[in-house]
Design goal:
The protein is an alpha+beta fold and about 280 residues long. The protein contains 10 helices and 12 strands. Helices cover about 40% and strands about 25% of the residues. Strand 1 (about 65-75) and strand 2 form a beta hairpin.
Length: about 280
């Protein structure tokens, strides 16, 4: 009897020990898993991830007509809010560049198809919105890629890649020039090069200097176009002079509370640059 009781006690003790061991191992694994997903990244890791989009699959550098379309964002680093948008259109065959300012308060209604896609990222995104409000619903990487889809739909054209530039750097390149559209409403800002930036471009008198400048500025921006692909345009960029660069404002009407584009005039503007009759 005592031997049977001792045997039962030993079995219960071993079973309990094994259960406790399993619970302890499970707890350790759960703790390490939580640390992996939730602990803050190091400053270096965060900075590296922020500079270059590591998923450039499907990015097309230029259209079959030799036209490269780059959507440029100006964003605030502290709030990550997109504040300005420019469509850069580069003709690498004729070496011509056009910067089309898309007013930040441009308002549009998303198509049902695009809206259903975007609400998967954030169900609170409204179907009627202004272009610079998307960062209120998405963090920077999703905002940049989703904003490109929105602008593609707005303009009715494919955009090859995007480049997000911090405001401090952006302000060294672009400044505002106000364009009067109607006596009834306020003038609208169009982005043009600053005087200092034009002076800088004039100093880049060799391809090596231009290449060095691009390599210097690339770590300061966030883009889904790899550096080596950007440098593939180097000879065309170098052959493009300041006289080959134009600045335009997206056609539309400023209602003060919102900017409403003119679809037909916008289509014509894009086709004129692309050489489409």
């Amino acid at each position: 009897m005592k031997r049977r009781a001792g045997s039962m006690f030993l079995k219960i003790f071993i079973r309990s020990f094994l259960m406790i061991a399993v619970l302890l191992i499970t707890g350790v694994i759960s703790y390490k898993t939580a640390l992996h997903y939730w602990q803050p990244k190091s400053e270096e890791a965060t900075r590296t991830a922020y500079q270059v989009d590591t998923t450039p699959d499907g990015i097309v550098k230029e259209d079959k007509e030799g036209i490269s379309k780059n959507l440029i964002y100006c964003y605030e680093e502290d709030t990550e809010k997109i504040t300005k948008l420019i469509l850069e259109m580069f003709d690498s065959e004729d070496n011509k560049m056009t910067y089309i300012t898309i007013p930040e308060k441009t308002q549009l209604t998303l198509s049902n198809n695009l809206y259903q896609k975007l609400i998967l990222d954030d169900p609170e995104i409204p179907q009627i919105l202004k272009l610079t409000t998307i960062t209120e619903y998405l963090d920077h990487d999703r905002a940049f890629s989703d904003e490109l889809l929105i602008v593609e739909e707005l303009l009715g054209t494919d955009i090859n890649y995007y480049t997000a530039v911090p405001k401090d750097t952006y302000d060294t390149i672009f400044k505002e020039k106000y364009i009067e559209q109607s006596d009834k409403y306020d003038a609208v800002a169009m982005e043009i090069f600053t005087g200092d930036y034009k002076k800088l471009l004039k100093t880049l008198k060799t391809e090596d200097k231009l290449k060095a400048y691009i390599e210097e500025i690339y770590p300061k921006i966030y883009t889904n176009l790899p550096l080596e692909d950007k440098l593939s345009f180097l000879d065309s960029y170098f052959a493009t002079g300041l006289s080959d660069i134009t600045f335009k404002l997206l056609p539309g009407e400023n209602l003060n509370s919102a900017y409403i584009i003119d679809p037909e005039s916008t289509k014509q503007q894009l086709e004129e640059f692309s050489g489409i009759d």
